[in-house]
Amino acid sequence: MSRDKNPDDLGHDALLPHNTRRSLPIALLRAREAVMAHFRPMLARHDITEQQWRVIRILAEAGRVDASEMADKAFILAPSLTRIIRSLEERGLISKHKDADDGRRVLLEIAPEGMRVIADVSPESRAIYEQLETRYGRERVEVLLDMLDELATLND
Amino acid sequence: MSRDKNPDDLGHDALLPHNTRRSLPIALLRAREAVMAHFRPMLARHDITEQQWRVIRILAEAGRVDASEMADKAFILAPSLTRIIRSLEERGLISKHKDADDGRRVLLEIAPEGMRVIADVSPESRAIYEQLETRYGRERVEVLLDMLDELATLND
DNA sequence: CTTATATATTTAACATGTTAACAAAATTGC
DNA sequence: GCAATTTTGTTAACATGTTAAATATATAAG
Fold this sequence. Notes:
The structure is a homodimer. By secondary structure, the first copy, chain A, is mainly α.
């Protein structure tokens, strides 16, 4: 019985916040969740989280990377990254070395076991993404990515 | 020195995953984070989290709401909602009652103290949102919301 | 060379996300 | 009515998000 689709129900009190159903933060959350719902079960079968997948995937793409660069590329905050690195290292998916030139920096590298995960997960991941692209429309995905990027860089 | 903008750098290994920089999940995450960066400091000044704000805001909009409906509207998973409700009730921002007709259901209602938060935060929230809308373009926000909604409902 | 400042990472503390298991109440089938 | 099933909400356990503070190393100022 919550048929609050009637526009007259809103705007009767200027103190009330923006209509929840047309709010960018929640819309972005919903969309992201819907997308991840396609990937999560597959990742779970391979016993890795979304964030762990992002990290090893970036290492497979970019080779040796320090923690700051990783935080940047994977969009993970430093404290989370510290924990994720510890976990991935304990599981033998990545290796960790101190930078010889700068003792503060931590260099990350994918391990053979990590490459095995890449080889297992990558094809499935691509297939899911391509199916998504097809269903939503390749062109529209590109448009959406551009619009999202512009939103993300509004501050710069 | 990470100038991997050259398209030739990609595609040399079909095993590698989709290019990270054009991936929907991360793009959605970045965009959402950029948007929330505008709101979070303000919410922090009022000593509430983003999720707590969503909950009391929905109660202010919709009146009495049960937990399932709240989880749905605020897009918060049940276990998280349980904790958020406990916290908000302890702080006196909301009240909680058992449904007389259905003993399983928990009915939520905003408390006077919660209404005070609404009154304090709402104008600031609106101002931030409107500034964002203006900078990004009102029309484009609408288009983006439509595209995000379609992405979120692809599965239905 | 030494002190002050800046940068990179970690730790701490708390809130939320995520899945699975559980408890309690309601509904369905017989 | 009553057992089986479904629905609602909570708890548990672990991973991540978020902010602030701490630590260690590097760089700049003097």
